[in-house]
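Hi, can you check this record?
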Amino acid sequence: MKAGEGGEPSLGELVALATRDVSLLVRQELDLAKAELTRTATAAAVGIACLAVAGGLGLCALIAVTIFLGELFTWAGVERFWSYLLTAGLYLAVAGVIALFGATRFRKLSPPERTIQTVRDDIAWLRRPTVAPGSVATTSAPAPTPVAGSGSAAAHPVPRSVPGQSAVPGGR
């Protein structure tokens, strides 16, 4: 980066650097959100598949097993009307158990917590006042901390520069 008068970067250079860093940050946040939402969508798809399989199996077996059980209860001495009603009650109980299993899959879904936290950290970092070389900071806001298990490079990939040093690796 070129330095203006007195070794200070020009306003245009600072704006270009800030624009590049914000653009990089937004792209990386979107990538993180995509990864988390893909995981959530996969879990939702498993829940939907369980409900669809349960419904399909119940529909396919309903006719054959209904006739079998109705006739079995009739053979056991129950009137035909009551035997088919008892069979329908058994089906409702089994369908309820399968529906509860599918519903528990949906309850396990959660929002993309890592993305939300890193966006909050990034907003806090962006709101922190920039300190010019040689001046005294008026606030001492703590630097955002990376999310546990995410690695420091993945949590805050935007380079933080020290006054008088280049923010780009390699000194460009």
Remarks:
- Residues 51 and 99 are 6 Å apart (CA to CA).
- Helices lie at 11-75, 80-107, 113-127, 152-155.
